[in-house]
C-alpha cells in the first residue's frame, strides 16, 4: 500500500504546477472543454467509412508518464474516444461504454506519431463491439489493442 501511495503522490514541483492550472468554464457546444483540449488536442481524423475510423496522433508531453512514455490512462482514453466515434450516429445520444479490455504490447514516447484505427466488430440492437489498434507510424510496432463494448439507444422502428 505504501508503494502505491508513493507512486501516486506528486512531487513538490508537480504539485506547484497543478496549483497554477486555471480551468475556465466553457460554453457547451460553442467551445472546447478543458478535457477536449487536454486529452484530444492534436488528434487528426484521416479517414471515415462506415464501420471504420482512422486517425493520426502525435504523442504530446502532457500525456506522458514520468518515464516519458504515453501513459496507460491516455491509451485507455484514446481507445474509449476513437472506439466510440466509430459507432456514433449524429442526432442520437452518445453511446456509453459498457466494457473495455486493453492489451498493452509496447510503448510510445513523446513525439512518436501514432496511427489509431477503430473498426466495428458487430452490432446487435443498441449494443456495439469495436476494436481499436494503436500503432507507431514510423516503426509499425503495435502499441496497444483495445476491445470496446458500448450501448446506445437506437431509433424506434415503430
Automatic annotation (TrEMBL):
Residues 68-121 form the Thioesterase domain. GO terms for molecular function: fatty acyl-CoA hydrolase activity. One of its GO terms (cellular component) is mitochondrion. InterPro entries: ACOT13, HotDog_dom_sf, Thioestr_dom. GO terms for biological process: lipid metabolic process. It comes from the Eukaryota. Keywords: Acetylation, Cytoplasm, Cytoskeleton, Hydrolase, Lipid metabolism, Mitochondrion, Nucleus. It is found in: Cytoplasm, Cytoskeleton, Spindle; Cytoplasm, Cytosol; Mitochondrion; Nucleus. It catalyses: a fatty acyl-CoA + H2O = a fatty acid + CoA + H(+). Pfam families: 4HBT. Belongs to the thioesterase PaaI family. PANTHER family: OS02G0521700 PROTEIN, THIOESTERASE SUPERFAMILY MEMBER-RELATED. Catalyzes the hydrolysis of acyl-CoAs into free fatty acids and coenzyme A (CoASH), regulating their respective intracellular levels. Has acyl-CoA thioesterase activity towards medium (C12) and long-chain (C18) fatty acyl-CoA substrates. Can also hydrolyze 3-hydroxyphenylacetyl-CoA and 3,4-dihydroxyphenylacetyl-CoA (in vitro). May play a role in controlling adaptive thermogenesis. Homotetramer. Interacts with PCTP. This is Acyl-coenzyme A thioesterase 13.
